[in-house]
User: What shape does this take?
Amino acid sequence: MADGVARWGRRTVLRRAALLGGGAALGVAATSQTAWIADRRLPLGGGPASATLGSRYQQVGGGGVEVAWGVHTGAPLVALTFDDGPQPQWTPMVLDTLAEHRVPATFFLVGERARRHAALVRDRLGGHEVGNHSWAHHDLARMDARTAYDDLSRSHEAIAAATGTAPRLLRPPWGHLGGAVLHAAARLNYLLVLWTLQMVEGEYPHDPAGHARRIVADVRPGTILLGHDVGPERRLVALRGLPDMITGLRARGYTFVTVSELLRRAAVLGAAR
Assistant: This one.
């Protein structure tokens, strides 16, 4: 009897496992079918994944867009960039350090913050470069083409009014690209700029010198280096170590340039070969 119960238990377990396995397979199949439909039919034209807008003539500026993560060059050049500002607690600290060490940088500004804190950057960005980082740091890759364009246009105007310079570079929040972002960037004649190397503040809590040594060791010729002049307290590790970072890179023979200057010099060096 005990053996019969044991056999019955095994049969039950096996049967139920088979049923569960079949249900899981059906679930996977249904999910795959849903994904297939979504991939083929959604989002609709003009949505986040679409780099076209309707069937009419595409108003896309010069008709193309480039994306830069960095450049390949033998020249010891590095472009220092800062995202998300301006903010009163952080941006002046960065600008003061850069001024003291005579380092140019590229600031990707959030339009809403540039309008609200225009006094922080007005007359202080001589020798620096500005780029567009969206109106309110929302994910452009989730927006449809018209919304992404409207967002960037609004930010473009705010940055130009605050700094006196119209941005020609775009770095989308989190580096998220999508068809709508590409379409909007082309319409606005932007160059899309991502990065080669990013600050890693979370790995060096309370150790600005250690963080600076890490970044100095990781930079290669043609690097676009991403930092922030806004954010949580931990990011101050990078800003407090910025002087050491600058002197360390200069000791390795590096010259600091803006992103546009980096791209220009790389193009000149490439043409000379």
